[in-house]
Amino acid sequence: MVTERVVGTAEVTPRPAREGAGAGRPAGPAVALAGLLTLALHLLYVTGPLLSDEGGLAMVARWWGSGGEYLYGPQWVDRPPGLIATFWVANLLGPYGVRIVAGLLAAAFVLAAGWAGWAARGARAATWSAWAAFFLMNSPLTQTFALNGELVAATWTMAGVAAGIHAVRGRVSYRSAVALGALAGTAAAAAMLAKQNFADAAVFLLVLGLAEGLTGRVRRRRLLAVAGAAGAGFALPVAAAAGWAYTHTGLGDLVYAMYGFRVDASMVIARSAYAGPDSRLRELLGIALLSGIVTLAIAVVVAGRRQVRRCSPLFLACAAAGLVEVAGVALGGNYSPHYLIGLAPMLALAAGVLAVQPGRGRWLVRLFVVVPVVATLIVSPAAAVQVTRENTVQATGEWLERAAERGDSVAVLYTHANVVNASGLRPAYPYAWSLPVRTLDPQLTLLAATLTDPRRAPTWVVGWDALRTWDLDAHRVARALATDYVRFATVCDHPVWLRRGLDRTEPPDPCAGTGIQESSIESAGRPAMPGSLPVWTSSPGARSRSSARGRSSPAGPARSPGWSSPSGCSTGASAGASATTRRASST
Fold it and tell me: What 3-state DSSP class applies to 458?
């Protein structure tokens, strides 16, 4: 045993001696096994359709360098360039590259968690941290199988925390400590450039450095050198991102995309008249409980409360960073399941350290690591079968790919950016997600102008959400669809319009008689909006016209009986009109 002085008091309290490198049983095999199993489980999902965010971000990365007036070429998205760069790399790996990168990142998170545990308390802590990370990185409930900002940022966070602990507390040379400090700072910045609210690594490093400095257990000169290296490492990627933004659309655009937009969007969400965020918050709490995150968090708090009261630098840093992680989840607004990935770094580290601490609390921590690990191994194969089934998003995108010709473009109203990605077509409208539409184009002025501009108008328009969803002012969009487009087909119960004057061959509906359904993951927590249809619908007569090969139904959106056109005339199912041929010309 060694002693640790409590800051601000004369009390000296015992703490377990930290094992040095190579002390005790080697942690390598157990940590490596957790990492390999993580990669193996992720590969079960590799052939599945991409979710809305990962498909949409893959689409943004694909067209990033094609030119355009927005931050990422023809697209605008409220995400930092580090995340888009990750998807750009994933696209280079082929059609399964996105999910392959997700698996590699999850496995890297597990290995980094083992490294952090080893740097903090030695081999046994490394093992427990790695296996806690295993279930946190493999829970299908939190969508860890998908590549998203949380997964990328959490992996960088875990690496930065591990490097920081090793630099400050490890038995390494002065030069190695400085190099590790630089790595920690770079990883902390990379986390924020993947998901802008992931400041937990930076907070952890700051609090750890201050607390270690106050206790006097680390030489001031060494600590200052590590801190300087960490600061330089943090500044390097931040400066690179700022320089890139300055030479493109301007630094202000990047700052607004990362932070300013979130303020504006939060006001839009707060004004929403429907209960979507509230219901998703309740679902998120249920997911946190079922996935084992809540039980592990409770066990960590119970077992670690004494360490925090004793002002242990490591646990003060864990507590501060953990509060940042909780705040990131709570302030997210949309409460998507993958928000919970943000809690993984501090939970994995704390679980590993507390699982080897003296006292009864360690058994509680161990229990709530072992049970979720076993559950994850049991349920993951069955979950992968569900996730990898073809759904309407993938089927609709592939239908567009077959129907389109070289140079075609598409707009999807107003969600499911993964449809655009699955089609391979160039996006014609810069806002591929609903929140940017509601925040930046609530009157749909830009969308209507895009639909009516011969130079920018999309070849295809897919109706996924009702026109007046979220109380959007869709009057001009409806008029543009009625005058500039022809209802060409109904694909998987969603209307598809083709710009007038163009000839295209209509493939058969891939969902007709095949049993392909909408993804339960995509539709979860999406309530029907007040004052509008939850999905596009059409009368049997309209559907039979639109599905006839080589013919298209009258122009305009699919409507329920009594829906009024912009001119005020009834356009219900009883309003007949002559059908056109495959050429989308005026009737």
Answer: coil
CB burial readout 177-213, b (16+ within 10 A) else e: bbbbbbbbbbbbbbbbbbbbbbbbbbbbbbbbbbbbb
Distance CA 507, CA 582 (A): 11
Question: What gap in Å lies between CA 385 and CA 382, rounded to an integer?
Answer: 5
Report pTM.
0.85
CA atoms within 13 A on the CB side of 548: 13
Q: Which residues contact 407 (CB under 8 A, 6 or more apart)?
A: none
Positions of E strands within 118-218: none
Task: List the beta bridge partners of residue 491.
Answer: 494
Contact 150, 139 (CB under 8 A): no
Main-chain phi, psi angles of 168, to 5 degrees: -85, -40
State the Cα angle at 469 between 63 and 332, rounded to 5°: 65
In the beta sheet, which residues pair with residue 497? 461, 487
Reduce the DSSP state of residue 497 to 3 states and report it: strand
Most confident by average pLDDT, 329-333, 386-390, 521-525: 386-390
CA 372, CA 131: separation in Å to the nearest integer? Answer: 10
Residue 539, sorted as left (phi over 0), alpha (psi -120 to 50) or beta, turns out to be beta
DSSP summary character for residue 342: G
* E strand or H helix that includes residue 265: helix 261-271
3-class secondary structure, 575: coil
Question: Could you give the strand order of the β-sheet that contains 460-463, starting from the edge strand earlier in sequence?
Answer: 426-427, 409-413, 460-463, 494-499, 485-491
The three-class DSSP label of residue 392 is helix
Who contacts 54 (Cβ-Cβ below 8 Å, separation ≥6)?
Answer: 87, 98, 102, 146, 147, 148, 418
Q: Which residues, 6+ apart, have CB-to-CB distance to 430 below 8 Å?
A: 68, 70, 74, 75, 76, 446
Q: What is the pLDDT of residues 285-329, one digit of tens each?
A: 999 999 999 999 999 999 988 777 777 899 999 999 999 999 999
Could you tell me how far CA 388 lies from the centroid of its own chain? 18
pLDDT digits (tens, 9 = 90+) for 173-186: 999 999 999 999 99
Q: How far apart are CA 545 and CA 579, in angstroms?
A: 7
